[in-house]
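tool=predict chain=A
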Amino acid sequence: MGLNGHEVGMIRTGSVAVVTGASKGIGRSIATKLAEQGVKVVVTYRTDASGAVETMGSLNEISEAVCVQADTTDAVQANLLMEYATRYFGRVDILVNNAGIARPAKLIDMNYETWRAVVATALDSCFYCSRAVLPGMLKRQYGRIVNIASVYGLIGSYGQTNYCAAKAGVIGFTKALALETATCGVTVNAVAPGLIDTAMTAGIPEKIAQRIMAQTPIGRMGQPEEVASLVGYLVSEEAGYMTGQVIGVNGGLYM
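tool=predict ok
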């Protein structure tokens, strides 16, 4: 049974998910949504230990969760993460590649470290984690991979060549991997949020945030829970005919 006594029924019974970057924001909301649907969740983080522990504590009130520190921009750590998750829960059915950072700067002013850090966090980690989890999914002929991209991987954003390139890469990665796994019971989809009310966007200057919202037909920021609800559907049994899709949660910013 799910919350308030309603049947969950959407997610394969006993499913296990790894959610990267789950210590706060969109990642925490996704982990919470999956736990509400009866999924066992591996909460991963790179630096925010207290946030990850807080997420894990709230999840353990409704399902089962464990917290793991891993720098998924490193292939070895990504592999160790999936090995640990498999030992702890028996398998991994769902992977949500959510890890991401923003370090805006005009290209002329952007140093190599700033470029590399953003691309590695969003795109390299997506490859490393997917590569680590895929053998088990293919063996079981079942899996759900959801990659968190961005509307700015589709339309671009001033002063964010690193972020936009990384998220555009995530979109291309999603489509190509979906082709490789389509006949193997493994779906791969991407969610492309717009401006979402999180700690990451809290640092955006008010003038810029207002301009973005003015360009957004719905006229407001999105909430992390609105992204999480879509992810909850994409990992469900009902979404088994959806793969290689990039779905926007952006208030109409990209039409």
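The chain has nine helices and seven strands. The CA atoms of residues 41 and 65 lie 5 Å apart.
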